[in-house]
Design a protein that fits this description.
By secondary structure, this protein is of the alpha+beta class. Helices cover about 40% and strands about 25% of the residues.
């Protein structure tokens, strides 16, 4: 974190100077008063100026952007990333990937993206001041995958109703299992639960009498 130490007649004046140098707003810094100003004898002799330490807080968007850029470079992948922050959710969209590179980045059933998302979560939350949820996507993969899972859930639920027996889906990560459960939450005639241990935990769709 960048910081500056400033002295001036008042704390307010010192803070203004610090904000200009750090190119920051009050919301983006932490202020520590090192010395309060004093007027001295008769308001003239022996007076002291205010002395403060102003630290610019880490920008989670900048941290996320730098981490993903460095990771892509180390992987030898050419791409760009768009980082947004909304309600403590950091979303990273990795775009402009070539057809050859996207498969390497995403991995089997999104395992590559999940690994990157896990690492990013550790990086942006390492200081523990605020907790940010991280979501990493590439070429809109997660939205397409979600649509596929919703269609799969509805199709397998209908199958469970027809055959009146449990339908076991392929092993999925927690994020994908939640999509299945949420999709069928209000589906008449079936219920869902998960079974097994990670990474082979799967959703089971059963006929509800």
């Amino acid at each position: 974190m960048r910081f500056v130490i400033k002295t001036s007649k008042t704390v307010e004046d010192a803070l203004k100077e610090a904000l200009i140098e750090l190119d920051a707003t009050k919301d983006e810094v932490e202020v520590e008063i090192l010395e309060e100003p004093t007027k001295g004898l008769f308001g003239i002799i022996g007076g002291k100026e205010a002395k403060i330490k102003v630290t610019k807080k880490d920008d989670p968007k900048e941290i996320a952007h730098n981490f993903i850029d460095n990771l892509l470079n180390k992987m030898g992948l050419v791409a760009n990333c768009v980082v947004t922050l909304d309600d403590d959710i950091i979303k990273v969209d990795i775009v402009d990937l070539s057809e050859n590179d996207i498969g390497v980045l995403i991995g089997k059933r999104g395992s590559g993206l999940d690994a990157i998302q896990y690492l990013l979560n550790l990086v942006v939350n390492k200081n523990g001041d605020n907790f940010y949820k991280t979501v990493v996507d590439a070429n809109n993969y997660r939205k397409k995958r979600e649509e596929t899972l919703v269609n799969l859930a509805n199709k397998m639920a209908k199958k469970a109703l027809i055959y009146k027996k449990p339908i076991k889906l392929e092993p999925m990560n927690p994020y994908e299992r939640r999509i299945i459960h949420a999709t069928l939450q209000n589906f008449d005639g079936v219920t869902t639960y998960s079974e097994g241990s990670e990474p082979y935990r799967r959703v089971v769709i059963t006929y509800k009498k």
